[in-house]
Amino acid sequence: MQTPAHAPALAAHRFGLGEPRLDTIGRDPLAWVLGQWDAPQAFDASGLPDGAEALALTRAALRAVNTPGPDNDRQALVQANQRALQRRWAHMVGTATPVHERWVQFWANHFTVAATKGATLGVVWPYEREAIRPHVDGRFTALLRAATLHPAMLLYLDNAQSVGPGSPAGRRRERGLNENHARELLELHTVGVHAGYTQADVTELARLLTGWTVEPGTGVARFVPARHEPGDKRVMGRRYAEGPQALDAVLEDLATHPATAQHLAQRLVRHFVADTPPEPLVRAVARRCADTGGDLRQTARALFDHELAWQAHAPGKARTPEELHIAAHRLLGRPVGPAQRWTNALAALGQPPGRAPSPQGWPDTEADWLGADALRQRVAWAVQLGEQAGPQTDARALAREAFGAALSERTRTEIERADSGAQALALLLASPEMQRR
């Protein structure tokens, strides 16, 4: 691949989370990007509640809603979430492997679990650490299985409550079949909406998934035969025998389906490169994904090693609110402040953390979320941060060192003409180079 002059800036800002100095990238930006898969910086989760503990905290908080007296359980849940968020953001701000961290965040959004219902109020961040982070460098099948069977996903997409109508539990009319998880497994997580599956496939997959639930006492996922729909199931032309082993079989088939490689490639290129994904790049990524049986490290290499990933694609992708916040803190070398302050700031910018509006996750095209009000909020955010950090920052030098050849003459001139350090930094933070990548 021929390296363009602005390649260091693309490596730092398009694929990573922003760097204050491009000379840290080295002479080979592609090697800097791909090398992050060799030894990604580990996330330190010590002292944070795991998924089972978070579910217990959630249940206690929900029970306390209608109980008179101090709401200590609710406070305990809020504090656990804030500790998890603060640790997560500190990792993203300080990590030496930011491209790999972006890779983790892409998959966490692909397999979204949101704290938008009572049962999932405390499990979003344990789910990211337990189901997503450990599996993003292996085969897609393993990641798919970990996400599908995590208690957070079983609760979020209602499979924990789904019961086969012909099962012993179903015949007692305890509950009925719920198709939410099956539908999203096909439409969002694997083959995609254009793969040609039918409503009958959704129903059959929902029947196959029955029995997989969350044990109330331990908060772990398990298979309960009494809730499982008896008989064979047929999904997208393939037959699966009754029993828990059918889940592994169907996940392997869906994970390695050609439509899944195409669906994943489309989403990856749209996320990392352009709102309108270049078709040759999508085909290259899909082909490598399919040819390697869903090897995610090889899939990443196909994406980042392609010359189309390093082209300008004007006007460039807009950073999401969380990316923008993290990039600014990395740029300024500022430590993560109180989690509640970050949460409020991201909510004002339109994307409250952990609360994506649907199982689709946060959209990847700016037309879905970057309206006029969001732009005004971004300018206000830049002004506020400029007032806080501007007097201690040489924004002119920072702009040159952080963006190099990608710094436009217009942005450079505006910063040079600023009346104060606060104004200069605000102009840098609000500039297209900072807002887009």
From TrEMBL:
Source species of the chain: Hydrogenophaga crocea
Pfam families for the chain: DUF1800
Annotated InterPro entries: DUF1800 (IPR014917)
Domain of life: Bacteria
Protein name according to UniProt: DUF1800 domain-containing protein
